Amino acid sequence: MTNNDLVYGFLDESPNLQDKFAFFSVVIILSTNPDEKSYRSIFKKTRKNVLKKKQKEIPELKFANSTPQVRIKILKAIGKRSIKISAYILDKAGRRIPDTPENYGIVAGFAISEVLKKYPVIVLTFDKKYTKVKDQEEVERVTLKVVAKVLKKGVLQFKEHGDSKANSILQMADFVAGAVSYKYNLNDKSYWELIKDLIEQENKESWIDIKAIYKQ
Are 29 and 10 in contact (CB under 8 A)? Predict the structure, then answer.
């Protein structure tokens, strides 16, 4: 990909914003090919070749509910794909941050702003973290407010708040976000190492700093 391309972004996070962990990771998978069907084989092959019989009944493979063997298999497969990854790590600075649409939108806005510095046009799909339409709209409103504060250029278009059960790229983002979270929260780089060559950006900022910018 070049910075002249229109790119499609698929955003997910790990863990939940209000969890006890010190860091909150937002990951955006970037691709010029938004057809999620072309990535389904990653999960189909894992189900067929790695999962035991009872595990095959799991409706969706997610990083949190997978064994190390499954995580490694999927992350290795992701590492071979023609995609890029932007990772944004929030240092919560010892704060317990409520997992509200506004707070989530603030962090997402700063994460997306980093990507817009490189790619001028992004069509974004959020993982459907919030099911209520009003909450999704609040996330988008706050995200756009942050982008407008941080950047003077760049075009962000929202596509949808998608269901990762039906979108293999959002499933990929879940596994990548889990790998990044392991690196920062558990000091374990083993999963991150499998996809590190795809990571274009890996920025870390403090909640105190970005909240202050948002409130200006």
Answer: yes
- For the question of whether the overall pTM of this predicted structure is more than 0.85, the answer is yes
Strand order in the sheet with 121-127: 155-162, 121-127, 6-14, 23-31, 84-91, 199-206
Quick one: pLDDT at residue 110?
A: 97
Distance CA 140, CA 152 (A): 18
Who's near 129: CB < 8 A, 6+ residues apart?
A: 13, 104, 139, 161
| pLDDT per position as a tens digit, 131-158 | 999 999 999 999 999 999 999 788 999 9
d(CA 124, CA 22): 27
User: How many Å apart are CA 34 and CA 44, to the nearest integer?
Assistant: 18
Return the SS3 of 54.
coil
Distances (CA, A) of 13 to 71, 160, 176, 180: 16, 16, 9, 10
Q: What structural domains does the chain harbor?
A: 6-215 (3.30.420.10)
pLDDT surpasses 70 at 3: no
Asked if residue 123 lies in contact with residue 8, where contact means CB atoms within 8 angstroms, the answer is yes
Inter-residue contact 167 to 1 (CB < 8 Å): no
> Helices marked H in 10-155 — which ranges?
41-49, 68-78, 101-116, 133-150
